[in-house]
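We modelled the chain as a single entity of 191 amino acids. Its sequence is:
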Amino acid sequence: MVKRISVAVTGSVLGALLVVCTVASPASAHGIIDLKGVSAVAGKSSVMTLEIQHGCLPSEPTLQVEAFVGAPWRAVKPQAVAGWTSSVTKQSKGGWHITWKNQGVPIPFGTATFFPISVDWPTTPGTYGMSVMQLCPGSSYYWNDKYAPATANVPSPPLTPRPEVLVVASKDAAAPKSKATVAPSTSAHMH
């Protein structure tokens, strides 16, 4: 009986320690696309926001963010973000490469950064991805894995998911909410 109790206690202590270690370790951020209540309509233009949730590690603030979109995206233009410079380059095989570089005080680890982008959406409805890279002093993250169901050897969602946006036909677009009824955006994906 004593052995069972000690095994149970030991198992409980190890389980609690595992939970504490998991919670205490820093989680990787994600790149999140937020349309702010406005549908991405095929062939039209609007603004989306790319959110980077936090630095790579508690001691490593974000220094640079890069985003890559394919040829179906007709145009992208980063909007001004205080403390950051931006550039956009058209790729030789089509698509766009956006770069933001931190020019100000490093963003503290637990602080999200928001990068608004004016977008000319693809002309065909569908799901379109944006590969995102976050660079910090000693590490980086690259979110480019497509969502897929879990398999024996691959978890779902992936550890480095690629942000995606659903571009809809104009007849399927949600009516924009009036500014008076739009709640402040909060991310359910925060760690």
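As a brief sanity check on the tokenised model: The CA atoms of residues 63 and 180 lie 35 Å apart. The chain has one domain: 28-172.
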